[in-house]
Amino acid sequence: MKMKKIDIAEYLSEALHLRDRQVVDFLEERAVVEPVKKRDQIFVIGKRPEYVALAVDGVFRAFYVNEDDMEVTDCLVGTPGESLMPGFDLDAPAPATMEALTKGAVFKIRLADFRQLMRMSPAVGSIYQDMIQRAGQYHLEKGRVISSYMAEKKYRWFLETHGDLDNRIPDKYIASYLHMSPVTLSQIKKHLREAEGAEA
Fold first, then answer.
1. Which branch of life, at top level (predicted)?
2. pLDDT 10s digits, 133-152
3. What is the pLDDT of residues 41-77, one digit of tens each?
4. How many folded domains does the chain comprise?
5. CA 109 vs CA 12, 53, 112, 114, 136: distances in Å
6. pLDDT of residue 200
7. Is 194 a member of any domain?
8. Range of the domain at 64
9. If phi over 0 gives left and psi between -120 and 50 gives alpha, with beta otherwise, what is residue 72?
10. What span, in angstroms and rounded, lies between the C-alpha atoms of 139 and 11?
11. What is the C-alpha separation between 173 and 73, in angstroms, rounded?
């Protein structure tokens, strides 16, 4: 389903701060915004992406299956305008599967059209490079937290960085993201609730 042109223009302005008329016209003609259902897969691990995708609405996760046949949530996205790309290299097979955890919508543009747009607009190229840089910093920070923090401190970090997602998705995905068991996460949340109650 393609959004009305004004909807795409508003999305570009509000989520990406893109207001260049030539860019907006190009994207209104070439891009689409598609609704997604819970558990819809945007990209599948091992398959080459055919388009660039950004979040419009909803919550998404990138995950892979480890050697113990367990799903590991590598990334959580819940902010409009954030990249849903499973990896940095647009020409490489997806290193993870990206799926919707809630119903929502995705902004999509074919890779060939996206590359044409980057050649046409330095602003778009700058936005893309900024997304890559922020994604790299995100994974470095997450890696530091996962490797050096105890379980409760990991969850407190999650609340600071992804607090708006805490009650929007099942705890099992948050636990997977933080590399802990759902039971451990449940115990931490119970402990924090009790501590807050004691302070009240």
1. Bacteria
2. 999 999 999 999 999 999 99
3. 999 999 999 999 999 999 999 999 999 999 999 999 9
4. 1
5. 13, 7, 8, 6, 22
6. 55
7. no
8. 5-121
9. beta
10. 26
11. 7
Non-local CB neighbours of 26 within 8 Å, separated by 6+ positions:
113, 117, 120
Quick one: pLDDT at residue 197? 75
**What's 46's domain CATH number?**
2.60.120.10
| Strand partners of residue 158 | none
Give the integer Cα–Cα distance in Å for 124 and 114.
Answer: 9
Residue 171's Cβ-count burial label (10 Å; 0-12, 13-18, 19+) is middle
The token pair at 152 is 């409760």
The type of residue at 42 is: I
Q: What is the pairing mode between strands 41-43 and 60-65?
A: unpaired
Tell me the C-alpha distance between 181 and 192, whole Å. Answer: 17
Assigned domain for 188 exists: no
